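User:
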Amino acid sequence: MKPAFWARRAHKWIGLIVGVQALLWMISGVYMTVVPLEIIHGDHLAHAHNQSLAAATPRIGQAALLDRYPNITSIKLKRLLDQEVYEIKQEKIGQDKQASLIDARSGAKITPLERATVVALARKAYQGEAEIIGVEWVTKAPQEVAKRPVPMWAVRFADSGATTFYFSPDTGDLLARRHSLWRWFDFLWMFHIMDYQERSDVNNTLLRIAASVGLLFALSGAWLVFYSFRWRRTA
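Assistant: Predicted structure:
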């Protein structure tokens, strides 16, 4: 058998093995380069509010705060809607640091945030005009926010992108913005990195094998091209 015969044969069979995955790599790669990352992150869906604090506002002192809430490791003063609050983190034995919001005037703990407060936060953050169609208390994180801490609030909007905002009940922070383009990105990303469970491991064995076979496919193609041009010169 001539080398050209083996080059064609190797290229054909390796192509059959890795061809579908190569097509998925190209489709997902095109999507990732066509849709801007800012759109995927949902930056266009939510305002970034940085309201300044009033210097003359009466607040309880930090010493009183430390006396009232033991084992505080950090304190941050910020605004929550029209209210000034302290965000504190407390260390508890055998647990992760627990965040809470404290009314800066009265010193009363106001977390976990209630539904009405989260709805107000969502309406203030949302840049669209769609109505809220659902508010859910989430105790088991869905795939699209699998790495965010639970419990959390999910607020859904009736827009074309099926937008969902996820809020922390402990800090009032907007944890994640999810919409159709993000969900397509995540779906294609799963096939791109071949991690069909967590969708985060870019060094998994399956991907390494597929990438190695893909490299063999490219090399066998180069081998075939070499013999094709050589054959034409001979002919």
